[in-house]
Amino acid sequence: MKKIFLPFLLIPVFASAQTINPGFENDTLYTSSGYKIFKGLVLNIATGTSAAGYFNYIKFHSNMARNNTYTLANSTLLVNKLKSFKYSSPENNSIRIQGTVTYPDNSKTEEVDILLNFEKATRPNAGLSAELLIPEEYQKIYVEIPKAETKEQRVSPDIKNQTLPDDLRKILVADEIKKLFELYKAGALSKAEYESQKKKLLDRQ
Fold first, then answer.
1. Minimal CA–CA distance to 35: which of 148, 103, 115, 132?
2. What phi-psi label fits residue 88: left (phi over 0), alpha (psi between -120 and 50 degrees) or beta?
3. pTM score, two decimals?
4. For each of the chain's 205 residues, which pLDDT tens digit applies?
């Protein structure tokens, strides 16, 4: 009798060790870490992880016609609506969030519409901190993702001056300035914003 009963005792142990599959139900997003995002929640946005300070995993929706995500750094986002859940892999996932951003020091608030890559935004990546801060209890299950392929994800403003050869650093900075100029020409950045971000990049060389 004991031999028959033992396997049934082990079933809950195995079940609890399984990874949670992300899902979207009853207006609530469930991430693989168990962290939930829902209407009324206040999200804490950290800083962008690209070399120019832009966010790799938090983007403005196309209907906002802007790309200056660096302005979201250290702000909070009150979730008003969630929709358009998408998940096919940790690399390819998103949720659309409409909400109210409050900028640092309560300088101003703004209605925004963003696309969030929720699996990658909430975990450290290649030595960089997460772009979206979540409680520590939900970060422990994550294994650090290997360095991503793009230049923006490989280079951190905090470490690039210490780890990259001068020639490579100059190439990456020039590439970022080119992107900024393209955004300026497209009207996504004002001249002042373009000059400000350009100066930050040049100062880091």
1. 132
2. alpha
3. 0.62
4. 445 444 444 444 433 334 578 899 999 999 988 899 999 999 999 999 888 889 999 999 999 999 899 999 999 999 999 999 999 988 899 999 999 999 998 888 999 999 999 999 988 766 678 999 998 888 755 444 444 444 444 444 443 444 556 666 677 778 788 888 877 777 777 888 888 888 887 876 6
What whole-number distance in Å separates Cα of residue 73 and Cα of residue 111? 16
Q: Using DSSP, state whether 147 is helix, strand or coil.
A: coil
Contact 142, 132 (CB under 8 A): no
User: Three-state SS string across 178-190, please?
Assistant: HHHHHHHHCCCCC
Kindly write down the DSSP assignment for every residue of 18-37, as one continuous string: SPPPPEEETTEEE-TTS-EE
Asked if 45 and 77 count as a contact pair (C-beta separation under 8 A), the reply is yes
The angle subtended at Cα 84 by Cα 79 and Cα 89, nearest 5°, is 105
Question: Over 96-138, what HEC string results?
Answer: EEEEEEECHHHCCEEEEEEEECHHHHCCCECCECCCEECCHHH
